[in-house]
Amino acid sequence: MQVPNKRALASWLYIATTGASGLLLLVVAARYLTPDVAGMWFTLQATTSFVMLAELGLGYTLMREVAYSKAGGADPRLRGTHSKTVLKFLSLSLTAATFIGAIIWYYFTKNQSSTNASTQYSLSHLWLLYLPTALLNLIAIPIRSLLEGSGLLHLERSSAIFSHFIQTLFILLAAMIFGDPALMCLSTGLAALVNIAALVGIAVWRKSSLVLSGRPSLSFRSLLSASLDFFSVSLGAALTKFAFAPLLAVNVGAAELAPVFFVIKIFAALANAVAVLVNSERARLATLYAEARHVEVKELYRRIMRKSLVSSAALGIIASIVLVYSPAILAGKAYEVHWWVLALLCIDFILNNCASVSASFVNSCNRNPFKLSVFSSGLLSVGLLLVLMPAIGGEAAVLAQLLSGAMTSYWYNNYQAAKTLAEFKHG
Length: 427
What we know:
This protein is an all-alpha fold. The protein has 14 helices and no strands.
């Protein structure tokens, strides 16, 4: 009974540190940085999501492969196949990430050449400092996937808790003492290095527990084929959720949109905490599916959905109330927003969290059906943003884009989950 208790404690501590560290960093950035610098910082964080698309779903693919191998038993003739897949993962993802990062840098350079009033840095300068952080985080993904698929999620969570503490400490010092966004970017990179070192240490320590054997090593072609579905889904989701950041930062200005950026990032920090409920069980879902225990898969999926719905509603309502009545305490009067903005973002928060549960369930069952529809939804939401921005203003256009994307994602992911459950009955 002792090990499950440790695993539960690690998950709950991870939820707490994920939410708390994200919220603390946002509040400190808002209070100790001018609105234009804080807006630039929020923009960098949101834009990084596009670089993380270079993962191409490979982290999820690797986790699923390892979990399936764990369920089927190790074959000594295939020893080291997952390690070879990890190396291919790194070469593919880092190449793609660098390419995407270069495109974003070119966009910032062409559209925002002048520096901001209160800092000597432009977005293009800061992006060059922040991009390596995303590349380092990509290196950590396959190590985390290997630990997770091998049943060592509680150790991966413990490493993440330590990493959150280090990252929060470094960025707090950079913001509070120096108020320098460049130092904040460098601090995130240093924290990413600490996280990688911790993950590698755990992998070496528990090497005997890692599932390194299984099906033959995936070729580059197989990896691309398996992950392009995830890429198009991730790109569609990122366009829906974060395209507003680089577009509005260069067209409207980071300072003017800092308040709504601030609130969106608060809900994003809370969403990361709720996502732990899904991520903690996705390897279990994949293992049960590989063992054809469909009844247990269905029960586990519904249990995760209930937890996500209850926790999302509770956190969303509490956050909205706090932001309505005490924005000045949290971040200063410059970050006050209307109550209806908070209400709409709370709805968006709940819909997206529930949609991610269904997507995780379907993907754990070896189905990647989302690519064209979600990608199309992302493109449509960006088109909506560009059309509405000059007509109703940046803030209202962002809300319309986010809500349209959340409703589409919720409907389509749950539709695919229902189809998967129906196949269980016929299978």
